[in-house]
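hey so i finally got around to running both of the ones u sent me last week. sorry it took forever, my laptop kept dying halfway thru and i had to restart like 3 times lol. anyway pasting them below in the order u listed, first the sequence line then the structure token line for each. didnt double check formatting much so if smth looks off just lmk and ill redo it

first one:
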Amino acid sequence: MTLIQRIIIAVLLLIPLFAIGFFLAQGDEEPFITESATNQQSGLPPVSSTDTMPPNHPDPQIQVRTMIKELEQKISQNQHEFKDLLLLGRAYVMVKDYTNAVATYEKALAIEPNSIDVLLPLADVLAVVDNGKLTGRSYELLEQVLKIDPNVPMALWLMGNAEMQLQRPDDAAKYWTQLYYIFPEGSENRMKVGQQLEAIGKAPADSAFQPFQPPAAKQATSANTDQAIHITLDIAPETQAKLKGTTVFIYAKSQSGMPMPIAAKKLPGDQLTSSVTITEADELMPERRKLKDIAQITVGIKISTQSDVDNKAELFRVEQSLPDSREVNLVVKF
């Protein structure tokens, strides 16, 4: 396995499909790479294009597309393994090539028809293609997952959603109640499932159940302040006029290792000010990657005509190493 594949596998394991977002939601700030429940075109060229894609490119999307070409070649030569098909299907999802993702997962399913590792993502991506509907083949695949293992959290969650789409709240409640008791007492996931049950009039009967309350905004602490990154922006006047209708991503990432940002803010271009602070509250996956654990950080700003990670829509990007003072100035001009 190449270095690129090892890096991308790590990235793939961290980035959820749209359905998993329920369990990983961290407020309004979204990771740079996430899928939605709508079947939108990404604007990217076909993944099998012959465009040159440097293997050491810092953009994870470019790295994924490079790996796609490598895997496509292995599969065309019948030199692949089952896990290569799973990885290729996941990579297709990352670049929003859902048609090829479905086809690849179907090939994997033909090899391992009872593998939850392919049944669940195939059900998920089929729902993406079908505008979020879980009532067709996705439903059948989820049923198969639960026959193999009746305690798969994501399958239980999706089946509950499917039953609600079929207007069968009693059946949805059965799946969600089972899911509720799988999660540890006091966990946010358990509270969120309990909230869903309460919303359909099926609140859990146990005395420990409490209606979900959104967590209070994080108070600034000394530790939080220590990790804060203070960014000043010199925005050229001619650039300021071009910001309306754009989306701005301001991020901090490791200078080595995975290129995915550790922390980021996303805001409309016309709300961009001359000063932005990134703190621990902006960490995308605080349970796995924290600012305090990264010795060398790069800070960057990306301005795009779209709100997702389509790099074809990128208007401007600049990055700079973060000094010990944790203060950095970025010049924004395009």
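and the second one:
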Amino acid sequence: MANPTENTGPAAESWRRKTGLVKWRGLALILVARNLKIRYKGSALGFFWSLLTPALTILMYAVFAHILKFNSGRPEYLQFLVTGLIAWGFTAGTLNDSLFSIAGNANLVKKVKFPRAILPLSTALANGVNFCLTLVPLVLYLAVTGSLRPAGFAWLVPAALFQFLLCAGIALLVGTLNVFFRDVQHAVGIGQLAWFFLTPVFYDLPMQLGAAPMHGAWKGLVFLNPMTGVLALWRRGLMGMPFVPEEWAGTVSPWWVALSCASCAAVFAVGAAALRSGDGKFGDVL
């Protein structure tokens, strides 16, 4: 039988494309596995830390809240808090790990021809796998405390999809920029801290809406922050919380959450465009 690579035409082109995709998929899986192994290299417990860390985080905040008698004036505040913290951890982990996803693989970039997007995307995938593991103790905790609302589980699908889209975009953008502008690694720390405090992780959405400088329905522009909507989706899916609290229901429409979803898509588009623009220059710069 003739080798399709020796022929021309649509069939040969299709065959070459498929075999190339298989090869790239294999490389992506290797890089994801490598990133996960590096995370736990030299650790006696290994991947078990992905389960133990959120469990200890929940315990730590439970003790902290008990000592200070702090519940933020709302029921299920601790459950609300740890759900936000664990979801935020996926984004923060990807942001930090993607800084050197390209710059840290200079030898591979200069010697092997492959889609450079695989490097930052494998970082996002590795963090996604780790995040899925951290959801296990979170779901168990919510179930034990009676805060889990299975009726809302359908919302977990868009929550996961849009957060991964956001993380993939961040990885592409930050990984590319750090090749050309090494100041990015210093700016990321400050930027991440500012983003964290502008996102309703510790405080709830009513506080964010109340502090927003806009008026009336325009306060929904707080959802321009992609993580505002992503956290709303996670809390809706796991705890059954409304997208917009009752006290703001007459002012701000729940449809503003779609703005956060659009922001996630925009970040991905910008990241993809940045990588496409810099792809041909990586080898020269590195």
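quick thing i noticed on the 2nd:
The chain has eleven helices and no strands.
anyway thats it, ttyl
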